[in-house]
Amino acid sequence: MKKNAMYSNLESVEQLFRQYYKVLRVYAFRFVNDWDVAEDIVQDVFVALWNKRTDIEFDGAVKAYLFKAVYNKSLNFLTSKKYTEEESMECFSDQIDALQIQEDNQENSLFMKELRGEIEAFVETLPVQVKKVFILSRSYGLKVKEIAVQLDLSPKTVEKYLTRALLELRTHLKNKGLMSLLFLLCLCSK
Q: Whole-prediction pTM value?
């Protein structure tokens, strides 16, 4: 579809909406973990596309533009005041869990190995108790109460250690430029 044809009439934008709405909604959901918010994000992207149809320029495919716009709006939501740190950690935690499942299915194993290696190297830098809690949770799939019993800690302490490890890991991956890779790999696994 040529740029002028795409932006010049409502039918073309409606066609794009019908073609990409469902997949973009799922894509947004993987970031925000809320179907209603994901729906709003996708609708906002298409409204912006229509409103700015004469100003928007890109070199790539329409599909790539739409995914990038949804990605950016999702990240904006995650950093907005509407999104609490607890929800953010839950979403990030789910993506780390998805990384575990995906290891067997990933076609792009080079990226997977790089990310896995970076996470493992980071885990080695954690304090001993935090490291144990993280490994028991993420590698062995134990629940907070099970970890608390096994390590003779209170459940609140286990939660605190997990939150600390995930926050530090997220910061570490951001600093290494690997957060986007994590999101993309999790997207490919579902």
A: 0.45
